[in-house]
Amino acid sequence: MKENKYDDPVFFEKYSHMARSEQGLAGAGEWDTLKRMLPALKGRRVLDLGCGYGWHCIYAAQHGAAEVTGIDLSEKMLRVAREKTRLPQVTYRHMAIEDAAFPAGSFDVVLSSLAFHYLSDFGALLNKVHSWLAPGGDFVFTVEHPVFTAYGTQDWYYDGEGKILHFPVDRYFEEGARQAVFLGEPVTKYHRTLTTYLGGLLEAGFCITGVAEPQPPERMLDIPGMRDELRRPMMLIVSAKKHG
Questions:
Q1: How far apart are CA 43 and CA 64, in angstroms?
Q2: Mean pLDDT across the stretch 56-64?
Q3: What is the pTM for the complete model shown?
């Protein structure tokens, strides 16, 4: 996340025209699945790690959260989030996820959407989140699926006519940095295995309550290229709870 690609003017301009940027949660293919996995929010203190435009913060506040804190490294993203948010219980803070520090038991719910694959040290993050949560607190996050991050390029293999053949998966057990291309721009992401994601939660003291590989909803399948998203998992959603 410290790479801060989202403050690059060219990258940010391209990102701002994505469906999830213009339409909010309705434009995110994983939202229908993620929404079903979210815990009760009413009266709870919520932290959103890598909050971006603030869509999840706004949702939490609209569904009764008592306090919502969103953090992000990108000033450009936070500027948009503040412009969109008209809810007094939401606060945005400019910081990297890796640098975040809160007193133990500060939150009842910690959320994160598509941010952790930018972080090099997932284990350290899990220990901090576990500390920040009150007993019985909930942790829900989405990341790019290990099948999607393994090879690195995050593009299909094509035939000589430019038609999709298959999606490459290689170097799966070799965790670490990958040089990917997102929106036509070079981006550094970090690949880790499914074992690392799930096993790391257990080692940090969490109880896993849900795992999902979301598929695009029927209403989005007519969008160009969206049906191809049914050929391999692109995202992983995990929900967990801190033991009471």
A1: 6
A2: 97
A3: 0.93
